[in-house]
Write a structure and sequence with these properties.
The chain is α/β, with parallel strands linked by helices. The protein folds into two domains: 71 residues, Helix Hairpins, CATH 1.10.287; 79 residues, Roll (Chitinase A, domain 3). Helices cover 38% and strands 26% of the residues. The protein has a five-stranded mixed beta sheet with strand order 5-4-3-7-6. The protein has a two-stranded parallel sheet with strand order 1-2. A hairpin with a 2-residue loop joins strand 6 and strand 7. The radius of gyration is 21 Å and the shape is elongated. The two termini are 30 Å apart. The mean pLDDT is 92.
Length: 159
């Protein structure tokens, strides 16, 4: 599994690179300084500042490792370069909910880029998995936590 590619858009890769840079240049040095200051407060076994700083350091180091791994395995996809009638990674899809008549718009992106409030769904989400391979005019059944939802694909774009 360590060799699995991690699909992401160009923007998704840039966002991860910026987070990695911030973690290494801002957050990591700040937590090291906090640990030094906390050490100066005496007995480490009862030092809440020290424990909190060490915990934060563990989180930061774990996140640096996680992002570095994902970037090393990144399969960067530029949605604007895709030419397909079928829905694939990177597609921006306009749908209509067959029950409510409401129109929704989603872009299928990498897991780390997913943000439903901004219309970005992760490639492994139930809606993305249901949409992959479909074309305009198709009916899609999505098995979501709140039950089965039916959508009609109105438009597929790559931008």
């Amino acid at each position: 599994m360590a060799d699995d590619k991690v699909p992401m858009t160009v923007l998704g890769k840039k966002t991860l690179e910026e987070e990695l840079r911030r973690l290494k240049t801002v957050d990591r040095p700040a937590v090291v300084k906090a640990i030094e200051i906390a050490r100066g407060h005496g007995d480490l076994s009862e030092n809440a500042d020290y424990s909190a700083a060490k915990e934060r350091q563990g989180f930061i180091e774990g996140r640096i490792q996680d992002i570095s791994d994902k970037l090393a395995r990144a399969q960067v996809i530029d949605p604007s370069s895709i030419q397909s009638d079928k829905i694939v990674f990177g597609a921006t899809v306009r749908l209509t909910d067959e029950e409510s008549g409401e129109e929704v718009r989603y872009q299928i992106v990498g897991v780390d880029e997913a943000d439903i409030k901004r219309g970005k769904v992760g490639v492994t989400s139930p809606i993305a998995r249901a949409l992959i391979g479909k074309t305009e005019g198709d009916e899609v059944m999505v098995h979501a936590p709140k039950g089965v939802r039916r959508y009609e694909v109105l438009e597929v774009r790559y931008e």
